Every structure is written in C-alpha cells, then in structure tokens.
C-alpha cells in the first residue's frame, strides 16, 4: 500500500464519504490483503468489497450493479484504476474516473494520457467544498 493511501482514505471517511474496493481478486483475498497490510488491519476503512462476481471490470453494467447495490447514483461515484479499459467501462456507466499512475503500472498511450484525469497520489484528490 502506497504511503498516501491510508491518510487520504481516513480524511475522506472523516468527511462522510464511503469507500469501496472493486478488485479482480476475490473478496476473501481483498480482506486478507487489507487485514494484514503493511499499515496493519485497515479493513475498517472500507464500507464494502466487490469482485468479479458483480461482473467483469471491463463491462459498464458491472459499475451500474455496484451503484445499485450501494444505493448510489453512478454519477456520484469516483472509480480509481490503472487500467484504461476499466476506466472506459466505468465512464460508459456515467461514473467519474481517475487513472492512477504508479511505479510498475503499465504505460498509457498519449491519447489515454490526454483523455483521462491522471493522478499519481491520492493526495491529488480533493474533497468537495462545503460551501
């Protein structure tokens, strides 16, 4: 887990935001990963977990199913990914998307770099203004 992740998620949760994981890994694997992370047990930071039982990450219907299951409109969701095909599917479902650039991730094409919102740290994501 990158060092910016846990502090950012804590800040989001303090602001009343909900955080969910949608991974190609099983829910059970997610719980093991986040239960025994380098930051300790951080499972309490997440409101829920989704895996490909909800649908493939490259299909827009999967994001609609997640939104329905958490009782949230798709346009009130931000999906973070490092995979452009997943970003495209989420966007097709009217979900906001940011592509995360981290060491070891596959490179993006110039078109992908210019099209998607890119972040390299969770600290680049700002909370909505309360005004």
Automatic annotation (TrEMBL):
SUPFAM superfamilies reported for this sequence: HAD-like
Gene Ontology MF terms: acireductone synthase activity; magnesium ion binding
Keyword set, alphabetical order: Amino-acid biosynthesis, Cytoplasm, Hydrolase, Magnesium, Metal-binding, Methionine biosynthesis, Nucleus
Entry annotated with the keyword Transmembrane: no
Keyword Magnesium: yes
Domain of life: Eukaryota
Gene Ontology process terms (BP): L-methionine salvage from methylthioadenosine
Record NCBIfam families: enolase-ppase (TIGR01691), HAD-SF-IA-v1 (TIGR01549)
PANTHER family reported in the protein's UniProt record: ENOLASE-PHOSPHATASE E1
The name this protein goes by in its record: ENOPH phosphatase
Organism: Irena cyanogastra (Philippine fairy-bluebird)
């Amino acid at each position: 887990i990158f060092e910016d992740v846990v502090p950012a998620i804590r800040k989001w949760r303090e602001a009343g935001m909900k955080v969910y994981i949608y991974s190609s890994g099983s829910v059970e694997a997610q719980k093991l990963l986040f239960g025994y992370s380098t930051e300790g047990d951080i499972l309490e930071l997440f409101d829920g977990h989704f895996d490909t039982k909800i649908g493939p990450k490259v299909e827009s219907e999967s994001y609609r199913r997640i939104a329905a299951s958490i009782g949230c409109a798709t346009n009130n969701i931000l999906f973070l990914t490092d995979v452009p095909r997943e970003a495209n599917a989420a966007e097709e479902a009217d979900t906001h998307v940011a592509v995360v650039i981290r060491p070891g991730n596959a490179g993006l094409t110039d078109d992908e770099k210019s099209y998607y919102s890119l972040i390299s740290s969770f600290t680049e994501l700002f909370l909505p203004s309360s005004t």
